[in-house]
Amino acid sequence: MSDQEEEAFKVIQSHRQGVLQSELWKLLDIDSRKCSRIVKRLLDAGLIERIEFRSDGIKTYLLRAKKRAIDPCIILAGGEVLPCIGCDQECTPEECALLLDWMYQLALEEYQ
């Protein structure tokens, strides 16, 4: 991904409700034609979705980042799921014994 594509993707991700394509090129300080090419590449890569949108009678597109599936390996260590998922204890991550044990197990797996 080029620097401009990466920057465009970050801008789109930062707007939870999406960003209008007609605004994106202004935010990126590029011309609308170049923005269209960047949007096409992001669409082809499956990173964003484009929804037709009418603003003051003018057709444009709402761009939203697609949510990607999380790799389950990220939340597993030693066959155990990250303890914070579903945790009802009120603690701080720096002082949570369950989380520290889980992280220790993860470090051991990386070392081996």
TrEMBL record:
Residues 13-67 form the B-block binding subunit of TFIIIC domain. InterPro entries: TFIIIC_Bblock-bd, WH-like_DNA-bd_sf, WH_DNA-bd_sf. This is B-block binding subunit of TFIIIC domain-containing protein. It comes from the Archaea. Signal peptide: none annotated.
